[in-house]
Amino acid sequence: MNKIQLQKNWKEKLHEIIYEADTFAGKLFDVALLILILISIVLVMLESVGTIDEKYHDQLYIAEWIVTILFSIEYVLRIISINKPTKYIFSFYGIIDFLSTIPMYLSTFFVGTHTLVAFRALRLLRVFRILKLARYIGESNQLLKALKASRAKVAVFLFFVLILCVILGTIMYLVEGADNGFTSIPRSVYWAIVTLTTVGYGDIAPHTPLGQFIASAIMILGYAIIAIPTGIVTSEITKTGEIHTNTQSCTNCGYEGHKDDAEFCFHCGNKLHT
Amino acid sequence: MNKIQLQKNWKEKLHEIIYEADTFAGKLFDVALLILILISIVLVMLESVGTIDEKYHDQLYIAEWIVTILFSIEYVLRIISINKPTKYIFSFYGIIDFLSTIPMYLSTFFVGTHTLVAFRALRLLRVFRILKLARYIGESNQLLKALKASRAKVAVFLFFVLILCVILGTIMYLVEGADNGFTSIPRSVYWAIVTLTTVGYGDIAPHTPLGQFIASAIMILGYAIIAIPTGIVTSEITKTGEIHTNTQSCTNCGYEGHKDDAEFCFHCGNKLHT
Amino acid sequence: MNKIQLQKNWKEKLHEIIYEADTFAGKLFDVALLILILISIVLVMLESVGTIDEKYHDQLYIAEWIVTILFSIEYVLRIISINKPTKYIFSFYGIIDFLSTIPMYLSTFFVGTHTLVAFRALRLLRVFRILKLARYIGESNQLLKALKASRAKVAVFLFFVLILCVILGTIMYLVEGADNGFTSIPRSVYWAIVTLTTVGYGDIAPHTPLGQFIASAIMILGYAIIAIPTGIVTSEITKTGEIHTNTQSCTNCGYEGHKDDAEFCFHCGNKLHT
Amino acid sequence: MNKIQLQKNWKEKLHEIIYEADTFAGKLFDVALLILILISIVLVMLESVGTIDEKYHDQLYIAEWIVTILFSIEYVLRIISINKPTKYIFSFYGIIDFLSTIPMYLSTFFVGTHTLVAFRALRLLRVFRILKLARYIGESNQLLKALKASRAKVAVFLFFVLILCVILGTIMYLVEGADNGFTSIPRSVYWAIVTLTTVGYGDIAPHTPLGQFIASAIMILGYAIIAIPTGIVTSEITKTGEIHTNTQSCTNCGYEGHKDDAEFCFHCGNKLHT
Question: d(Cα C108, Cα C106) in Å, to the nearest integer?
Answer without folding.
Answer: 5
